[in-house]
Specification:
2 domains; seven-stranded mixed beta sheet; 7 helices; binds guanosine-5'-triphosphate
């Protein structure tokens, strides 16, 4: 089961127009990365726990299914079920025959699903959570392990200096069907705050530590960082390519249909989505440009996130931490202060001197 029906409030305004799980990481929707990993681990069926709107967006995206059977379990209208309620809601679809995997749809993790399923089956766990080590665990659920990887303490978002370990809940679990009796029906339930602490008390929660890459894209800076990290791992030897017309500085990713005009410098760390059009003498680095955006001549973009179909005029300056919503328009000669956010379809026709949200 893939949990993908949250509102992604921390990723607004880009999450107003697409669910988090469809945010592209190096030009591929996160959900596509997840399908590929499921398929590699011989998983045959995925149930997407979503709301009606998210289901619509996902179906529209036509992600290659990689041999997976895809089913949808829809939250009841106007009743978000949290991270636990959707599991109960899908009880019939999941069935009671064997343990099943639950993934947060906003996580990129290089974890072997086969290994965590095996670890779960070998122990007496009712739930096994994937754990990974991070430097600062205070924003996450932190686990302390006892013998045989049984979780003896699980604290959601511990205050600074109080976390017993640096092992955090990676947002990936294996659950046995008995879990259904722990989750009330039709209610908002948090696995992390309500169910896991109960299982710890009963000695039924186990941990599975893994070493691979783990990234949460919940916040804009995390989303940008995830793109950067993956660009690094995917990039071949970094080098500068001088084309006759423009310059590409690795690492970069350029999708199909992109047009770049003379004297533009793209990269390092630039990701250009499908059909992006770049005018003459443009500079783009440390930025993600979503499909169909147009960047006018002599503009520079550094450290920003540009939404799908956004139109950036000529001689525009967009710098660190700026987020431009889908279809927004920035007029010629405009400069945006660092950290400016522009809502979808909004037009900006004056300089923005102090960071703010333009809606
Ligand atoms: P924020 O509003 O930014 O906190 O995001 P969120 O609530 O979408 O995400 P959170 O990190 O809290 O949730 C973890 C995962 O559970 C994400 O993949 C969400 O899409 C999913 N999720 C959260 N709430 C719900 C819900 O009510 N229903 C369903 N089906 N999934 C949910």
């Amino acid at each position: 089961m893939i949990l993908a029906g949250g509102f992604g409030t921390r990723l607004r305004p880009l999450s107003c127009t697409r669910p988090k799980t469809l945010f592209p990481i190096v030009n591929k929707p996160l959900l596509q990365w997840i399908f590929e990993r499921l398929s590699k681990n011989n998983i045959q069926e995925a149930i997407l726990a979503v709301n009606g709107l998210t289901a619509f967006h996902i179906k529209n995206q036509r992600i290659p299914k990689r041999g997976l059977r895809i089913k949808y379990s829809i939250d009841p209208p106007k009743t978000p079920l949290g991270t636990g309620g959707p599991i109960k809601n899908a009880e019939k679809l999941i069935g009671h025959s064997e343990p099943f995997l639950v993934l947060n749809g906003d996580i990129f993790a290089e974890l072997s699903y086969t290994e965590i399923l095996e670890a779960h089956k070998k122990s007496e766990a009712l739930a096994t959570i994937a754990l990974c080590e991070v430097e600062d665990p205070t924003r996450f659920g932190v686990a302390e392990l006892g013998t045989n990887c049984r979780v003896k303490n699980f604290i959601e978002k511990p205050a600074k200096g109080t976390a017993p370990t640096n092992l955090i809940n990676a947002g990936i679990y294996v659950l046995s069907p008995e879990i259904f009796s722990y989750i009330p029906k039709g209610k908002h339930v948090s696995m992390e705050r309500e169910i896991f602490p109960k299982l710890v008390k009963e000695g039924k929660l186990y941990g599975h530590v893994f070493q691979g890459l783990w990234m949460d894209i919940g916040k804009p800076e995390e989303y940008m960082q995830a793109n950067k990290i993956l660009l690094n791992t995917l990039a071949k030897t970094p080098k500068t390519k001088n084309r006759s017309k423009f310059t590409l500085k690795n690492p970069i990713a350029i999708d199909k249909g992109v047009k770049i005009e003379a004297n533009s410098v793209i990269g390092p760390y630039a990701i250009l989505g499908k059909n992006v059009a770049i005018g003459k003498n443009v500079q783009i680095k440390n930025s993600v440009i979503l499909p169909d955006a147009k960047i006018g001549a002599d503009s520079s973009i550094n450290g920003a996130l540009i939404g799908e179909g956004a139109i950036i005029g000529k001689k525009v300056r967009i710098n660190k931490g700026c987020i431009i919503g889908d279809q927004a328009k920035i007029r010629d000669n405009i400069s945006l202060a660092n950290g400016t956010t522009v809502c979808p379809a909004k037009e900006v026709s004056e300089n923005i001197l102090k960071s703010k949200i333009i809606c």
